[in-house]
Amino acid sequence: MYRILHTEHHRTSNDWCIYPLYDWAHGECDSIEGITHSISTLEFEDHRPLYNWFLEQLGIFHPQQIEFDRLNLTYTVLSKRKLLLLVERGIVEGWDDARMPTLSGMRRRGYSPEGLRNFARHLGVSKTNGITLLEKLEYYIREDLNKTALRVMAVLRPLKLILTNYPEGQVEFLEAVNNPEDPSQGTRPLPFGRVLWIEQEDFREVPPKGYYRLFPGNEVRLRYGYIIKCHDVVKDSATGEVTEVHCTYDPQTHSGQQTQKVKSTIHWVSATDAISIEVRLYDKLFTVENPNESPEGEDFTMHLNPNSLELVQGKAEPALAKAQPGDRFQFERLGYFCADKVMRAEQPVFNRTVELRDTWAKVQKKA
User: Fold this and answer.
1) How many CB atoms lie within 10 A of CB 84?
2) With respect to CATH, is domain 2-68 assigned 3.40.50.170?
3) CATH of domain 70-148+275-316+323-367
4) Angle ∠(265,254,233) on CA atoms, nearest 5
């Protein structure tokens, strides 16, 4: 029932050396607090007869103890002891690091409460120990954010695009939809001009098979804008890297008009009006599916993913300058992002919550 331990307690110092054991204290605490159903994980099932026996001998209120399997996620550890080790070693920033499976960490990453609730409802309760795919959690987060997150345009790895036949100094405002899943969110004006930023991945000087984005001689549509055609590039003389893409635009192909069809649409931001942003691209914290199954004597931190966090300096439409900590957005074609709790006026910070599906990315990964 009790153990004697001659060591200093973090609260009572050396006042006591006798401590109640779990099986003795568990039932009494539940009874005193009026717990009707005491929920435990499966490893406590063998303890239930002793739990019941103590309550019966004391003749006090008898809660019902129920055991079920604990939640385990792939590429994740949920043990508080192991999570504490990650914090103490400085492997993560703290308990609210966006890679941590804590409520504060998931909140900072941008996981929505409703997405987590839907995930829990789907899992239900079982008596079989197993491991749940992290992708299943991400599915429910993505499903909820798709309904609620405002759409914005952002470019994470900027490449300059110049529309050589667009009038210099001219600015027009294109109408962009805030959320196609919720028409009540309305629209916003999107500045458009001669010089734009596009994603580096949206241009290939020599396109591989099946690549339909921008390359010399090819046409694509700019999201909410016009159809453009690439006719030239500018390269860095020292590295040979493409630094500018030169295109022409067709003024008769404004979005929404009946025009010719193209196979790809890319996103962009106006170079004149764009704001600078810092983006934290989070990935799985571990490289193995079940880091809890490390062999005897092996440190589970050996399986940490060295690429679980990547910082990039991007560009975004000016509307994001007004983002408040915790605001959630869909960066079109890139994924869902959340404004970090530490927001800098000169360069807002955003955390990637979850990616969007990208067919071409899957093709490249297989290759």
Assistant:
1) 11
2) no
3) 1.10.1160.10
4) 55
- Cβ contact 106:116 at 8 Å: yes
Which string of b and e fits 172-207 if b means at least 16 CB within 10 Å? eebebbbbeeeeeeeebebebbbebbbbebbbeeee
Q: Phi-psi bin for 90: left (phi > 0), alpha (psi -120 to 50), beta?
A: left
Q: CA 223 to CA 332: how far, in whole Å?
A: 9
Contact 97, 105 (CB under 8 A): yes
pLDDT digits (tens, 9 = 90+) for 151-193: 999 999 999 999 999 999 999 999 999 999 999 999 999 999 9
CA 352-357-363 angle, to 5 degrees, is 120
Q: Which of 79, 70, 77 shows the shortest CA–CA distance to 43?
A: 70
pLDDT in tens, 308-341: 999 999 999 999 999 999 999 999 999 999 999 9
